[in-house]
Design brief:
By secondary structure, the chain is an alpha/beta fold. About 35% of the residues lie in helices and about 25% in strands. The chain is built from six helices and nine strands. The chain has helices spanning about 15-25, 45-50, 65-80, 95-100, 125-135, 170-195; strands at about 1-10, 30-35, 55, 85, 105-110, 140-145, 155-160, 195-200, 205. The strands form two sheets. It has a seven-stranded mixed beta sheet with strand order 3-2-1-4-5-6-7, with helices on one face. The chain has a two-stranded antiparallel ribbon with strand order 8-9. The longest helix has 25 residues, at about 170-195. It starts with a strand and ends with a strand. The structure holds 5-O-phosphono-beta-D-ribofuranosylamine (GRF).
Amino acid sequence: MLKLAVLVSGGGTNLQAILDAIDHGAITNAQVEVVISNNAGAYALERAAGKGIRHLCISPKDYESREAFNEDFLRQLDSYQVDLVVLAGFLVVIPPEMIAKYRNRIINIHPSLIPSFCGKGYYGLKVHEGVLARGAKVTGATVHFVDEGTDTGPIILQKAVEVQQNDTPEVLQRRVMEQAEWKILPQAIDLIANGRITVEDGRVRIAE
Ligand code: GRF
């Protein structure tokens, strides 16, 4: 059984998609061990509480320095002994020590087709604003392993979504979530939980 930590900052609709997929059997061999938020008011924490899942808040704001936060964050995560860390809208930079220790065991969902509209500055609505400003006709979402760069790790799954003529960033964000994020994040977890993902030379292979 793959034990997951899901890291969140906001509404937690991706967390909900994971919980629903586990309930409905679309994800097998996995369970959510802990939900961690950097924001005490995140609705995602209520979703976890409602399911009886352990949950906690840890924020850099409560520490003297980033080093102190990074050290305690890693210590707390380690204490849950999880196999996979899922970044589901988590807005805090992952400490380099955590990336090294959890190599190919941290995944992130990004709301565009990487390598477009990703990297520094592209988060939340800014991604969708960028897509609309460029006049792109297709966007989507990407699940990838987390490495030391921003959105540069090995790509696991991607799904395309059409941009429509009158989209606002909010409307496009919602469509990308519904049509892509809530599908490929659970799918990627299921593939990992069932041993079908390997990483070779920085590229992901999916076993048939
Ligand atoms: C999603 O759009 C995700 O791609 C981005 O942050 C958002 C999180 O939404 N990184 P939610 O908290 O899962 O509802």
